[in-house]
Amino acid sequence: MKNILLILCAMILIVSGCMQKITVPVSSNSIVRESWGQSDSLPVELVTLTNKNGMIIKITNYGGILTYVAVPDKNDSIGNVVLGFDNLEQYKQEHPYFGSFIGRYGNRIGGAEFRPMKRFTLLQQITDPIPCTGE
Question: Which of 71, 86, 99 is CA-nearest to residue 12?
Fold first, then answer.
């Protein structure tokens, strides 16, 4: 699942390279991981992806939430275009799924398992044998 998220983020960064260029050093391409707290005693990370065009994406392993996307506008001003929160605690509260995205399994996954790219993946079963991917 982490590989799919990283591939998705890399594709977004590549597509963003087609946007109007701004003056940012070429060496600014980066991936930075930082601790963002804990949920149910498990570590939560915030991953920041930056490309040479000034686009910045922040995504967390807490549900794959996209927390921040900054892109340059027509005047080369960079701004965040994601509606969401600044910290993990706010995402733990009830909200209308800010930053959430739906993958190719946007409903329920039978038996809590699937086989992307011929690899067996077992998911944590919540309360029933068909976990909801939005929970």
Answer: 71
* Residue 79 and residue 63 in contact, taking contact as beta carbons nearer than 8 Å: no
- pTM > 0.85: yes or no: no
Structure tokens at 82: 């994601």
Q: What is the pLDDT of residues 32-74, one digit of tens each?
A: 999 999 998 999 999 999 988 878 999 998 888 999 999 888 8
Query: What contacts 56, CB < 8 A, 6 or more positions away?
Result: 48, 49, 50, 68, 69, 70, 78
**Domain locations in the chain?**
2-101, 104-135
Distance, in Å, from the CA atom of 40 to the CA atom of 92, rounded to the nearest integer, reads: 11
For the record, the structure tokens of 123 come out as 């998911």
Asked if residues 99 and 66 have their Cβ atoms less than 8 Å apart, the reply is: yes
- Given a contact cutoff of 8 angstroms between Cβ atoms, the answer to whether 56 and 70 are in contact is yes
Place of tokens 């706010």: 90
Q: How confident is the model at residue 25 (pLDDT cuts 50, 70, 90)?
A: very low
